[in-house]
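Recall the central idea of this unit: under ordinary conditions, the amino acid sequence of a chain determines the structure it adopts. In this exercise we apply that idea directly, starting from the sequence alone.
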Amino acid sequence: MAGRKGRRSVDSSLASLDKDLAAWAKAMSEARDGLDKVPAGWFSIVELAKKFGMADSAMTPHLRRLMEAGKAEKRKFYEGRTTDGRRYKKTYYRLK
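Accordingly, the structure predicted from this sequence is:
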């Protein structure tokens, strides 16, 4: 398994001299356009905690009970990028 320094990101492959690799990287990059936008009505646990004036950890049991009752759903969206350029997912919640 390659270490972090040996990994290539899609973004860094866009400028590759290998034309096939650059074409694949461009197609993959275009395919993920729009994935970074969180639709209206979805909130992270941090956003919900701020709205209710509660601690993040205090929101977890409430959200868990809502999901068990089938009144809420959760989904992961790409949130941002790490220092090495890779994207990470964050969990968001919405009432059904």
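Residues 19-31 form the longest helix (13 residues).
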